[in-house]
Structures are given as structure tokens and as C-alpha cells.
Write a structure and sequence with these properties.
Blueprint lengths: L9 H8 L3 H16 L8 H17 L2 H7 E10 L1 H4 L2 E5 L1 H10 L7 E6 L2 E8 L2 E11 L2 E8 L2 H4 L12
Parallel strand pairs: 1-6
Antiparallel strand pairs: 1-2, 3-4, 4-5, 5-6
Helix pairs in contact: 1-2, 3-4
Length: 167
């Protein structure tokens, strides 16, 4: 409501909520979906894991058709590259996301499972350095949202060797 009704920027809302502006945007997005009646995300970690791991396997194989089948038609990917990397990039729609996924598939070799904001996700790291953290929202057996933190300034403060609690 603070953003949608009173037009307060997420940068000002985040400190009130005790989170980052990106997290505040995500909270607002989830609230909007609930109001609109969009199905809630799958909460079973094993189901989340199976879907995301199949998605990664399809990316490594270069299987465009299988990627499309694993994505919600209205999937949204948000990539936070930070101020030095160009800010926020957004991809919308299964075809665009599948194409983008194939162009970055080489990085899947560096991905390992991790809990991200309480859900199944992946951390891409190499030589003790995190390159990206991805959080997946799985709805009705398909990936509906992917939020990727690739802001190297913020990632430099994260230990990529944190315990893998998603296994």
C-alpha cells in the first residue's frame, strides 16, 4: 500500500521493513498476487528442488522445448546487477526466459543448491567467490519467478561456502 497507494519509493519503504529495496519490491509483488488470487507458490522443498534441478539440466543440455515446458507462460526474471553493473534487468515470458537461460547456461556448472529466503535456490560460486544467487518461485510445478542477485558489491560480503541447507 505504501508504494501503490501513496507512491512512496521502495528505497524509502525498505528501512521501515528492515530489508533491501529489492526485498520490499518482492513483498509488494507477493501481496499484489494474493489480492489478485494468483496461486500461492509451492512450499514443498523437494518439489521445488525437483523442478529447479530439472530446469538446470535442460539448460545444460540446451533443450529449449524442455525449458519452455518448465516455465509458467508469464514467468518473470529479475536480475539485480547493482549500480556498477547496470541496475535491474527484467525478462518476461517463457520464450524470453528460456532464450536468456540458454545464453547463460555455461554458468550452471558453478551452481549449487542453497536455501534462499526460505525456498530452494542456487548459489553460483567459483574459487571462493559468489557470482550470483538465484531464488526460484515454483507454482503448480512450473517456475513462475526467478530473482537473481548478481550485484558484485553486495555479493562480495556473502560467504559462498555457507552450509548447503537445501540438500
Amino acid at each position: 500500500m505504501l508504494h501503490d497507494v501513496f507512491d512512496i519509493p521502495f528505497d524509502d519503504i525498505a528501512p521501515i521493513l528492515g530489508c533491501t529495496p529489492s526485498a520490499a519490491r518482492q513483498l509488494a509483488s507477493r501481496a499484489r498476487r494474493r489480492v489478485r488470487g494468483v496461486p500461492l507458490p509451492d512450499t514443498d522443498p523437494e518439489r521445488q528442488r525437483a523442478v529447479v534441478e530439472s530446469f538446470y539440466a535442460a539448460a545444460r543440455e540446451g533443450n529449449f522445448a524442455r525449458l519452455l515446458a518448465m516455465l509458467d507462460p508469464d514467468v518473470v526474471v529479475r536480475v539485480d546487477l547493482g549500480p556498477a553493473g547496470g541496475g535491474l534487468q527484467v525478462w518476461r515470458g517463457a520464450s524470453a526466459v528460456a532464450e536468456g537461460t540458454l545464453s547463460y547456461a555455461r554458468f550452471t556448472a558453478y551452481g549449487r543448491p542453497a536455501l534462499v529466503n526460505g525456498a530452494f535456490g542456487m548459489v553460483a560460486a567459483d574459487a571462493g567467490r559468489a557470482y550470483a544467487i538465484a531464488a526460484y518461485t515454483v507454482r503448480q510445478g512450473r517456475i513462475a519467478e526467478i530473482d537473481i542477485l548478481a550485484d558484485q558489491g553486495r555479493l562480495s560480503r556473502i560467504d559462498p561456502n555457507m552450509p548447503d541447507r537445501a540438500r
